[in-house]
Write a structure and sequence with these properties.
The complex is a heterodimer of chains A (389) and B (126). Chain A has 389 residues and is of the alpha/beta class. Chain A has helices at 16-22, 24-27, 38-57, 71-85, 105-116, 134-140, 163-172, 244-279, 308-317, 337-341, 346-350, 363-383; strands at residues 4-5, 65-68, 97-100, 121-124, 147-149, 176-180, 199-203, 214-218, 285-287, 298-303, 320-321, 352-356. Helices cover 39% and strands 12% of the residues of chain A. In chain A, α8 crosses α12 and α9 (308-317) crosses α12. In chain B, α1 packs across α2 and α4 (88-94) packs across α5 (103-123). Classes of the chains: A alpha/beta (389), B alpha+beta (126). The A-B interface holds A 305-307, 309-310, 312-313, 316-317, 326-329, 331, 333, 335, 345-347, 350, 382-386 and B 1-2, 13-14, 16, 19-20, 30, 34-41, 57-65, 101.
Chain lengths: 389, 126
């Protein structure tokens, strides 16, 4: 059976040009970038070249980029690194960290951990589209606040947050602003300077780079403490021997993404809007997330009276790879915090379906998906005691 | 996703047995709640103290659907006393096992059946 991959939000295939760039760094140019010999130099210069390319996609300077093992590590380093540098005042009453209810677990769980060890965290509510409440944000800031961490774009429903406004507020109150831009990179044009972003997390495998590599942008002058001690790599901020092939791959992936961004976005927006239009013809189907302020490659739906894991398995039987936010598909058997965060009842959240596309997605694949989906929804509704039509 | 289920689970998920509803059932049982993700309804027809016909409806994951499907197969034709003895372990075992987090699904199938039998008995109290 022909297989159709509509889960680019989970991971992307490595671009052939990225693969070509990485190849020499496994066997020929395998040296440790910290060594002074020629092998080391080969790796060192390749890493510095990659650093420039990563910096370039967000209009940063190359010495403001730290390489990590991925989005999760970048988020951990940013949030813990700032928190441990800014020790909590004993008598502090206000919030130390402000985040949102719909962050990725890498941010949310890190914040919960910091709460456990004594810091106070404000989880901002979002509206029905998933947009953070800016008034609440500003009201939550006090002299005790040292960090705002709010995602650039949501990984489930694709909503793009008002980052510019958040940056302004953070800047006005002199609070450090970190954003998890793992989903936004390559899809949204980002200038960290004009957006007042102090820290930004990047993941390689979401932008056609290899897994196990990421980066953290740290604006020059930002006071941050390391959370990983060792040989003192990356200006002492992130010890660990350089993952040269991964870093080279990430650099190339950023270069390609920047170059292709406009074209990619035009194409994916067209696919997205076409798919949304077709799918919403299904009775009692709804779009999750914002109709306009959303990632170009994200279509997120819910269908009443059916359950998402079942729907995903049926799609899989038809060759289509998708994702869901249903409780049944999670290890914790709890509905997605993002979907309950935008005000959906758990039973509404169960019937969710995320379709995310990429460069390789073909128009006929979208057509095929739009064609088979209604029958699968009907089939599951026939089985459902909650469907009374 | 699918690789965590046995072939038997997938078979019952793809081709559910006895799926649907019975108009004017002799017994009806519905358990679970939409909040936790599964709702199961079982309809039975009883003749000479045996389950003559049985149908189910399920809102839930593949494990929930397969559990209801196999439960109906296991008790069809059985006496009410035999059917009542069906446990979650019987359901899971018959499916060749279920992932740990999905064990509660098999529980719901046997619970829904017990509710349906209880309903039948209450309606037929003399």
């Amino acid at each position: 059976m022909k297989r159709i991959y509509l889960d680019y939000g989970s991971s992307t295939p490595v671009d052939p040009a990225v693969m070509d760039e990485m190849k020499p760094f496994f066997m020929e140019k395998f040296g440790n970038a910290s060594s002074i010999h020629e092998y080391g130099k080969d790796a060192f210069y390749a890493i510095e070249d990659a650093r420039e390319k990563v910096a370039d996609i967000i209009n940063a300077k190359s010495d403001e980029i730290i390489f990590t093992s991925g989005g999760t590590e970048s988020d951990n380093l940013a949030i813990k690194g700032i928190t441990f540098k800014n020790k909590k005042k004993k008598e502090s009453k206000g919030y130390n960290i402000i985040t949102s209810e719909i962050e990725h677990p890498a941010v949310l769980e890190t914040c919960k951990y910091l709460e456990k060890i004594g810091y106070s965290v404000r989880y901002l509510p979002v509206d029905k589209y998933g947009l953070v409440d800016l008034e609440e944000l500003e009201k939550s800031i006090s002299d005790d606040t040292f960090l705002i961490t709010i995602m650039f774009a949501n990984n489930e429903i694709g909503t793009i947050e008002p980052v510019k406004e958040i940056g302004k507020i953070a800047n006005k109150h002199n609070v450090i602003f970190h954003t998890d831009a793992v989903q936004a990179i390559g899809k949204v044009s980002i200038d960290v300077n004009s957006l007042n972003i102090d820290m930004l997390s990047i993941s390689s495998h979401k932008i056609y780079g290899p897994k196990g590599c990421g980066a953290l942008y740290i604006k020059k002058g930002t006071k941050i403490q390391t959370v990983q001690h060792g040989g003192g790599h990356e200006s002492g901020l992130r010890s660990s021997t350089y993952n040269t092939p991964g870093i080279v791959g990430l650099g190339k992936a950023c270069e390609l993404s920047k170059k292709r961004m406009k074209k990619d976005n035009q194409y994916m927006t067209k696919l997205r809007d076409h798919l949304i239009e077709k799918v919403l013809k299904i009775e009692e189907s709804f779009l999750n997330g914002h109709p306009k302020k959303r990632l170009s490659n994200n279509a997120h739906f819910r269908f009443s009276a059916i359950e998402g894991e079942s729907l995903n398995m049926m799609l899989n039987d038809k060759g289509i790879a998708a994702a869901t936010g249903s409780a049944c598909s999670s290890k914790k058997l709890r509905a997605s915090h993002v979907l309950t965060g935008i005000g959906l009842k758990p039973e509404q959240a169960h019937g969710s379906l995320r379709l995310t596309f990429g460069r390789q997605t073909k128009e006929e694949e979208i057509e095929y998906t739009a064609k088979v989906l209604p029958d699968l929804v009907t089939k599951l509704r026939k089985m459902s005691p909650l469907w009374n039509k | 996703m699918t690789n965590m289920y046995t072939e038997k689970v997938l078979d019952h998920f793809r081709n559910p047995r006895n799926m649907g509803e019975i108009k004017n059932p002799d017994g009806f049982g519905k358990v679970g709640n939409p909040t936790c993700g599964d709702v199961m309804a079982i309809y039975i027809k009883v003749k000479n103290n045996r389950i003559a016909d049985i149908k189910f409806q399920t809102f839930g994951c593949a494990a929930a659907i397969a559990s209801s499907s196999i439960a109906t197969e296991l008790v069809k034709g059985k006496t009410l006393e035999e059917a009542e003895k069906l446990t979650r372990d019987d359901v899971a075992k018959e499916l060749g096992g279920l992932p740990d987090v999905k064990m509660h699904c098999s529980n719901l199938a046997s619970d829904a059946l017990k509710e349906a039998i209880k309903d039948y008995r209450e309606k037929n109290k003399k």
